[in-house]
User: Fold these one by one.
Assistant:
Number 1:
Amino acid sequence: MTSTAAPSISAAPGGPSLPQERRLVTEVPGPRSRELFERKSAAVAAGVGVAVPIAVVAAGGGVVVDADGNSLIDLGSGIAVTSVGNAHPGVVAAVQEQVAAFTHTCFTITAYEGYVEVAEALNRLTPGDHEKRTALFNSGAEAVENAVKIARKHTGRQAVVVFDHAYHGRTNLTMALTAKNQPYKNGFGPFAPEVYRVPMSYPFRDGLTGAEAAKRAISQIEKQVGAENTAAVLVEPIQGEGGFVVPAPGFLTALSDWTTANDVVLIADEVQTGFARTGAMFASEHEGLVPDVVTTAKGMAGGLPLSAVTGRAEIMDSAHVGGLGGTYGGNPVACAAALAAIDAFEHDGLVERAEAIGTILLDRLRTAQASDARIGDVRGRGAMVAIELVDPATGEPDPGLTGAVVRYAYEHGVIALTAGTYGNVVRFLPPLAIDDALLGEGLDVVLEGLAAA
Ligand code: PLZ
């Protein structure tokens, strides 16, 4: 593709062979993108928002190409999904082979090897060397719902404990588990009962050690819920939508000690943090945390919809035969994609690559912070890093500035995302396939946006 001819709005070949460059040939959004957004307004429900108003025709490596021929640097990976790179060649080949063999049987009607192989891989890769079992689903929310079902069945208890700033999905149970009202919950109730929220460890805002924050949370569970009523404590090892909140060291392990002592199921929601994203295969590993149950999705299948619940065999097997399932869960095409993506995570050095990306991100952003008091906090691990923007005089969150930075970024050819309960976090989630030069240029543009705001 040349930089002058705009491609048609239909798909163009993507993958890592796309020129790895930021290239603007029109304003962003350009005319073809704007045209699609007019059709979108007339055809798509208004509740389905779009953060970056471009019409994508191809993506790969560290770029996303739009219908006007603009090539944008991708610092979002479709919210931590295309970690192996968009249209990764191994994923493409595996999908093509599977789609030509068979597309669907419904695993609960007739079985196939791909599903079992993904379960075996998850049992092997998730933290802990205890005996495990896995069940596959479609979305992160569906995995979290099933993890809660299983924990309740295993314990015979009902209460589920979640944290401030938590995000677990948009279905009815997961809306209840999610903290933030706007935009996730507002007007969508009533919500599922027996969900109890306790304070998270948020070092930038609470100044507590991990042990102190855990004590505060545990005391609240004991006083307000009762261990004997608690089926599960559900926690993101690093919070995603909530603002890349990294709990203080010792917080997660103190929770784990308490859940173990009280026969409560500890569920780590690794939907966003899993699969090399944080510079470990799973974020729990940074703290030596061995959760009883882990939920995964997103990065696992290189862009195809697949999610999983993996946990201790005795917990997972407590659900009766026929109690878990769904028409599409563990779809064979998604499983083929996952096996190819998992092969890349394990054999292409992507855990190390995430760590190296983290070093670049943290160095650059901490340097920027030293001369800009609006950057209140720089935090994260691996290729999951964020800045929290504040009013330097008061320390109050600055969501207006955050929105302006992200808008400047896409208008100048960089996709960056926001997050956070207060809407004041710019988060960096690049594909692990991005090269250093492109990552550096993407950061330059975001920091230019901050300087210009
Ligand atoms: N658990 C930790 O991050 C999805 C949501 C985007 P689904 N996060 C992105 C949006 O605005 O809808 C997520 C997550 C964690 C669960 C989920 C839910 O995963 O695949 O979106 O259902």
Number 2:
Amino acid sequence: MGIESTAHTWSVGIVDFSGNVLSLVNDMFIPEKGGIHPILVREQHLNNFINVINRTLSEASISIRDIDLIAFSKSPGLGPILKIGAQVSRLLSQLLDIPIVAVNHCIAHVEIGRLMCKIEDPLTLYVSGGNTIVSAFESERYQIFGETLDIPIGNLIDSFARDVGIPHPGGPRVEQLAKKSSKYLSLPYVVKGMDLSFSGLYSAVKRLLESKDFRNNYNLNDVAHSLQETAFAMLTEVTERALAHTGKKEVLLTGGVAANKNLQEKIKYISDEHDARFEVVPVRYAGDNGAMIGWTGILRYKALGENTISDTQINPKERMDQITIPWRS
Ligand code: AMP
Ligand code: MG
């Protein structure tokens, strides 16, 4: 049983030791207004966790006694939310007297992609509400080749959406708006070395919306289009440079923003240029989900065995490149 609890989604997945997902149930916190408030999310997760666990078990037609291993997301994420996942998992492990393993959420995104897309050694672009990371396996770790220096790409899109009255999460609606325009308004394009910065882009988009030219010389579709073009071109540049540097022959796009067709096209284009196979993680497994935690827990357990309870402390800031990956040679 894999338990995901790093941010908005409490998700439980049941996976067998061959990588078949028997069931997956998500409960997502959707803010009425504003962003993700950890204390409100924690309340929702606390109210619903047992319900989600029970639904996952009944979907898989098994009982809690059939569970052999508990895996949970220990990092990175919002402290109060990570804690619930850790506490529920420790409790289950001790009550059921079964092993527990602690998993890094970002590594889990890569591992479920490798499993679902049947690929071996990808360069991965992981784009979500909380993360923006280009990584690949090298020298025993998932090394980070590029990342955001400030806000994540999904957060940028959701913040823009919120400013124009689109409910959370705004990504799919913003994509639809952007499709209706091909008018590009100049916006700041900020790539520093291999890293990205989106906060200046967000401020510039706000200025476009507040300008007297808005609705006279350009409309909301034009702004959405320009925002996507700029941000996605930045992501594509960094991904391509990492691809050239690592020489990987597979590219994996994952995270909630991977659903975006425009981003998919751009990453596919550079993959083709470098003769690399391009894969997008199926949408059910691209966003935060308990199945990815369960599967990564299995890989970790097979390679290293269980964690002791004192080894299961949360680590809100842990980076994926701090962890060695013994199940890959
Ligand atoms: P995650 O954090 O991985 O659960 O993904 C959620 C993020 O994906 C949110 O920021 C959404 O706005 C974003 N998202 C979902 N669908 C799309 C889309 N079609 N285009 C852009 N962003 C999207
Ligand atoms: Mg995620």
